[in-house]
Amino acid sequence: MSELFDAVDALLASRAALPPPAERKRLRAAHGLTIDEVATALRVRRATVSGWESGKTEPRPPERDAYARLLDKLAELYPATQADTATPAAAPDVAVPATFTAAPAPAEARSLSTGQASEAAVMTATETPQTPAPAAPAAATRPARTARTSSTSRRPGAKKAAPSGTRAGGADPRFENGPLAVVDVDDEGKVLAYCTGGLVLDVPAKSIPALVDWTLREARLGQPKLSGPGKDADPLIVLTEAALERYGLPVTLTEEEKHAGRIPEGHKVIKQLARADWKLTKRGFGPWARIYRPATGSERACVQLCIPSWNALDTRHWGTAGQLPPAELARVLGVYASRVMTPRGSTAVTGLELMTALHPATRASEPDADGKRHSEHNPGSLGKDAIDPMNWPPCEVPDGHPVLKDLPRFHVRGPAEKLFEEAYDWARPMTDAECTLRHLVGIDINMAFAAGANGLTVGLGEATHVKAPAFDPKLPGSWLVDLSHVDLSRVKVGKEWVELDGSLLPSPFTPKGERPEGPAWYATPTVAYAAELGYEVRPVEAWVRFDNGRYLDGWYNRLRDAYLATMADLGVDADLSPEDFLAAMDGYKARDPELGIVVSAVKATVKGGLGKLRERPRGEGWRPGEPWRALSRPTWRPDIRAAVISRTRINLHRKVVKHAAFTGQYPIAILSDCVVYAAAGPSPLDFLPYREGKPLPGGFKLGINPGLVKHEGTQSVLWGEEVREKFNAPELNLARYIKDGTVTDVDNGE
Q: Does residue 184 contact residue 245 with C-beta atoms inside 8 Å?
């Protein structure tokens, strides 16, 4: 009989009464418990508890009985008030398509596909905040979708994304399941697609061609276009190792395949695609394979694949994203997609693609006499045609470019032949006074290169060669001018001439901080700064672009907003006081490591996208003097890259000069966007001249916005001297190691 009683007790436990999801969360919070603490006590994952509190999943025995007991005890301690139980205001009516059915009861949630929905199931009413489409208000929300009868499943334990990680399809019904899905195979052999917002779909496809077809016909994945004349983003499918095995693809690439960047053309999966009339782009079936059929009219048929185990998600930019479980990976990529764009390749490729997505090359014309529209150039874009390699100014192109093919072999171009706008890599020995201080404090400029792009006028078309031009600071281009006469010991700061110790400052005109010795090629922002410092500039010649505009403004705004929104999710807001900002930045990534990955990816998108503007040959059997693949892109624009780097370096030097003029303090070292000062204390507030909470106008300011600074790291002055002595390098760039103090080898400048 006892066995029967035990069975009855187990049956009762399987349906132990639980309060509504919102009440579960209230009770936990009322007792000061975190989700992690509850998860640890019940021996489940954090995502599982999060799912219980959101109503997306329901606990099963034996955890259900223990969870019910916890909530019962908490309810005794914290009884619900009238405000807690008040009926919420009626939400706007939301049309639910007939293809959606009720959420399954817990016992049925494991596997729900076409025709298997229970008539007794009830639809969840939980509303989850959604990341809006670009034009929607920031606080826009919509009800969470439940399972679709066509091919949908809810699985217990699927992680509910934070507000920043929910489905990003906005109100567009074509993309109601978000921009992407991570396809995996569970322990029971089912193929599942983890979407953003915690949605999980059953995948009926049994081959890669069938998977592509399912993605385009049923999955409702994708992302609306970012610009009026643009195109909607193709759906992204991420394949886990289990999915690769299921679909007959290698889990990892061989060394030969890694070098080629693809699997062989004769692979059985490629043959399957060919038989189904699917095509691959020129880069073949690699980590970021793009599978398509030629467009018919306005209809696109293209799916982007991402294969993490083939190193699609470079650890330098995506950290541990490639090792995350499917639901968590869908969240990370979903946040990135909703705030930047659906990834199209590496962060560098995506950064470049974002420029084009915001400024498409063409647009539809006004109707002609017959009422027909035609494709025409989109003003403000770079157009659809690349600049002819032979029309490039010789000074703006890298070595080996076709326009330089007649140069003697092994010829090394000097400053008067080559535009060399690069980021700072400068350091100097410390003075005796600086050695008496105790600390070296590094500050880092947030999104420095993005800030350098903001508001910058760049060329849109080809350059015009001008002899002995009058310098125009509003005209983008490259100028051959002698700036060796600019003396940093006496410069204008604003309208006032100030005296400085020029020997303690880097030159603003060279990446190594050395004073130029004669005529050299510079981008417009560099020459304009020489004039700003109070010195005359007389260019010998120039390549200028009369067709110009602020091409990067939208790109900057998109990436800035992505960065700030994600940092705000991590507890770092834009309106914090200096002290609160420093405290908030301390260990911010640990608060949500997944969002920390997104922050790193956004920053890599900025630098990588700008780097792609001057992409060099990548194997391809290239020889100096021959064109390479990147030259065929309208977005191969080394002049734009040079202008952004020039402005970024100048912005930093301007702050350094203002700081020196006001405080008498000079930098010890500068590496790109990191500056190191000697200080009496370990904090940036120990040397930044704040007065009543206000920073020096035009100087360094603590904050999260692009162009403001954060604390990079602090080491002792003794550490700095010992490191330099150890490597016998008085000008070792300490900015390179200030973050954690680890020096693994002699600084080689790379």
A: no
Pairing relationship of beta strands 490-493 and 200-202 according to DSSP bridges:
unpaired
* C-alpha span between 265 and 288 (Å, rounded): 15
pLDDT digits (tens, 9 = 90+) for 275-316: 999 999 989 999 999 999 987 766 679 999 999 999 999 999
As a whole number of angstroms, the distance between CA 464 and CA 546 comes to 8
What's the CA gap between 666 and 659, in Å, rounded? 8
The continuous run of DSSP H or E covering 290 comes out as strand 290-296
Q: Cα separation of 341 and 562, whole Å?
A: 10
Rounded distance between C-alpha atoms, residue 655 and residue 661, angstroms: 10
Summarised one tens digit per residue, pLDDT across range 240-273 is 999 999 999 999 999 999 999 999 999 999 999 9
Dig out the tokens for 31 from the structure. 């007792």
Label residues 81-95 b or e (16+ Cβ within 10 Å = b): eeeeeeeeeeeeeee
Whether the bond into 62 is cis, omega within 30 of 0: yes
> Which H, E and C letters describe 239-283, residue by residue?
ECHHHHHHCCCCCCCCHHHHHHCCCCCCCHHHHHHHHCCCEECCC
* Structure-block tokens of residue 196: 């953003």
Cα separation, 398 vs 702, whole angstroms:
37
SS3 state of residue 582: helix
Q: What is the largest CA-CA distance in the chain?
A: 105
Which residues sit opposite 679 in a β-bridge?
Answer: 439
Q: Is 339 exposed, middle or buried (0-12, 13-18, 19+ CB in 10 A)?
A: buried
- List the beta bridge partners of residue 443: 675, 711
Show the tokens assigned to 353.
């693609």
CA angle (251, 254, 258) in 5-degree steps: 100
pTM here is 0.78
Strands (DSSP E) contained in 118-259 are 127-129, 141-143, 152-153, 180-185, 191-195, 200-202, 236-239
Handedness of CA 709, 715, 717, 721 (dihedral sign): negative
